[in-house]
Specification:
This protein is α+β, with helices and mostly antiparallel strands. It is 23% helix and 28% strand. The chain is built from eleven helices and 24 strands. Helix 5 crosses helix 11.
Length: 467
């Protein structure tokens, strides 16, 4: 009996003396934490009831917590942007997080146009890489993998921005972060979690998406691919769920090309993704996204990609705290991965700097269709973000189409009148509807005076048949 008691005490002493503490990969040296907010520091221990003390070097106050079934979690208040700092986590073992900055944290996600690195395709890539020395910009790359159930951790580590690390990181995320860093003079943390070719369904919780019969059936239309997942929830479980405890300022998103197969469902799936991510992160963060660029696909005059763009526009108009970047002037009909990522990132940053950070006197969007008036044989189109007027690049305005009650669209003659566009066609005596840039490969030329392009749109809600 005494021997058994001795062994038990010895084992308990061993467990307490050699208890191991570890953290998720998103909490590592070189990370950036969201400034002036409450951030979560969490992890695990081999001692199920371990008492943990967390001490940030920016504060004289430590917090004490106790693990429950081997898991522990505590919240820290962060100061204004700055650093560097350390965070010490101490139980029977001590872990110190070093070179920590406080600043602004953004998550970049989507498919290949968000994923692609300077080495894969970026204008002026050699110079951009050479100049990428920004010690206060940090990268966290989530590697491509899937999971059938939500995962608590993912591989990765925070890295300081150097030419060597930047060349293998998302071009758009880097360029967006660089703009914020230079404009705001604060550290910026960038998380890249994306996978080329993926449809939106794999970035949404399977449980949530399957609650909607329409979306559940639409997901079945997706053709399986050998190079990327398209099953519902697989990348959400593996590449988003492990990040949910990490406080972020917002999301930048570039995706949609792979949903042309079930384009109409995007009107519902895209708002669902935004809403569900905000609930999962427990924060109504800013969400800025890119309207997919023109490309020939298998039919430049088809409208499956135009449906995606329309769904993206409708989402921006319906969902709060969102913004959309238009790219119909910087696409490439021969390349589904346009290499002008600089303008894409700059336009995303315009939204963030204005709407999220409160910068004044910035026009951050191109013209967005607002309303129409029918005047005899003409339709007058009104736009938001055109207070200073509109302009065309070229001799004539392109990509306007007009229709009567027969729902047959004809190319329209279009003319700018101050901050409106007046359209008409000799083939349409009693016009009722207008469409603009409403095809896969449309290359329109309408801009506001600040040089930002107008979004594609349609004034009708007629049923569209995809061929």
């Amino acid at each position: 009996m005494k021997k058994l008691l001795f062994i038990t005490i010895t084992l308990l002493f061993y467990n307490y003396s050699f208890a191991e503490i570890w953290l998720p990969s998103i909490l590592s040296d070189n990370m950036v934490l969201q400034q002036q907010s409450e951030v979560t520091i969490w992890g695990w221990t081999t001692n199920p009831n371990e008492k943990i003390t967390i001490t940030p070097s920016w504060s004289a106050h430590a917090i004490e917590i106790q693990a429950y079934q081997g898991k522990w979690s505590g919240k820290l208040a962060t100061p204004k942007a700055g650093g560097t700092y350390t965070i010490t986590i101490k139980g029977h073992e001590e872990v110190i997080l070093k070179n920590v900055l406080i600043g602004e944290v953004w998550l970049g996600s989507g498919q290949s146009n968000m994923e692609w690195t300077p080495l894969q395709g970026l204008d002026n890539a050699e110079t951009e890489i050479k100049n990428a020395n920004f010690p206060e910009i940090r990268f966290f790359q989530v590697f491509n993998h899937t999971a059938l159930t939500p995962q608590e951790n993912t591989k990765g580590k925070w890295m300081v921005c150097t030419p060597e690390t930047m060349k293998n990181f998302s071009s758009i995320a880097y360029l967006f972060g660089r703009k914020l860093h230079t404009e705001l003079s604060v550290p910026v943390g960038l998380i890249s979690s994306n996978w080329g070719g993926t449809p939106i369904e794999t970035w949404i919780s399977e449980q949530l998406l399957n609650k909607n019969k329409t979306l559940r059936e639409a997901a079945k239309k997706l053709t399986p691919k050998p190079w990327w997942p398209n099953e519902t929830g697989l990348t959400y479980n593996a590449m988003i769920y492990p990040l949910l405890n990490f406080n972020i300022a917002g999301v930048i998103w570039y995706q949609g090309e792979s949903n042309r197969e079930n384009a109409f469902s995007y009107y519902k799936s895209f708002p669902l993704l935004i809403d569900s991510w905000r609930k999962a992160f427990d924060k109504d963060f800013s969400f800025y996204f890119v309207q997919i660029a023109p490309y020939k696909y298998d039919n430049p005059k088809g409208v499956d990609a135009a449906i995606i763009r329309d769904a993206q526009l409708k989402t921006m108009l319906a969902v709060s705290n969102t913004g959309m970047v238009v790219t119909n002037d910087i696409g490439n009909l021969e390349n589904i991965h346009p290499t002008n990522k600089q303008d894409v990132a700059s336009r995303l940053a315009l939204w963030a700097l204005t709407k999220h950070y409160g910068k004044k006197d910035i026009v951050y969007s191109g013209p967005i269709y607002k309303s129409m008036e029918i005047y005899k044989r003409k339709i007058i189109l009104n736009f938001d973000y055109a207070d200073n007027g509109l302009l065309k690049k070229g001799k004539e305005l392109k990509e306007f189409y007009i229709a009567g009650d027969d729902q047959k669209f004809y190319p329209a003659k279009a003319k700018i009148v101050k901050n409106t566009v007046v359209v008409s066609s000799k083939n349409v005596k009693k016009p009722v509807a207008v469409r603009f840039a409403f095809s896969n490969g449309a290359l329109p030329n309408l801009f506001n005076k600040e040089g930002l392009p107008a979004s594609a749109f349609r004034t009708d809600n007629w049923e569209i048949e995809l061929k």
